[in-house]
Predict the 3D structure of the following.
Amino acid sequence: MTARTAPDPSDDELVLRAKAGELSAFENLVQRHEKRVYSLAWRMLRQEQDAEDVTQQTFLSALEHLDGFRGEAGFATWLLRIAAHAALKTLRKNRGLDMVSLDAATATTEPEEPIPHPEYIADWRQSPAQLVERNETRRLLDEALASLDEKHRLVFLLRDVEGLSVRDTADALGLGEANVKVRLLRARLQLRELLTRTLGDPQSRVGRAPHHHG
Amino acid sequence: MEWSLFMKCEDMLAVLNEYVDSTIDPSICAEFEQHMAGCNPCQVVVDNIRQTITLYKNGQPYELPVRFQEQLYEALRERWKEKFSAK
């Protein structure tokens, strides 16, 4: 007979226990989410020391404000929101006086630039499942991501990588949903363009699409 | 490559997110699919975008360096003590 193990407690349950003063419950929460927080920080900052600082700030802040966590959006969403703001703050600090870009990252209106049309259109030579196995894929993905404007990158990371809803992404960044959708579309299109230039099969490349008139 | 009577490639961009996320309005979805059936570039773009998202979503997260992990838990324990001994 095998011993029955209790199912893992939910985040909400661990939060309750942590609030009541159980350190191991809090440590369990940190363990569960540390990679997500660190990965988000790393992908935003691309620098180990900064990613570590943001990760530490995030969990210290979570500990500090645990009593204020009401559980509306889920613990992971709450943490990622703290991490996103800490990452933006670090970007601003690194830039010194150049605040324009950060202001743009949290500005509530998107400048009305036209959405860039797909240029390089071709089937990929390999499936995502095959690609994910390859070492060079991570570098390619990181480089493509790094080339995105940070306000587009952050929305893509929260929505498509971390799986937050459009609504939660909007809440986390203090943006409107329409704004999140526009940023997400730009990010997806730009990443598609960059990846397809490397991963696309030139044989299957579709000639200039009918998008490109006038 | 044909132009759909109803929906143009241009219009596709406006509903691309909703289509890929399956949150598109059913009547627009039908029109979109009708357009795609006759438009290879649009099919490929949708395909590429889905693959792009899958690739990022399934990528491995970054591992915390062990040295940092120890430092993190140490810092949290310190702060924990302060927080709960103050109560």
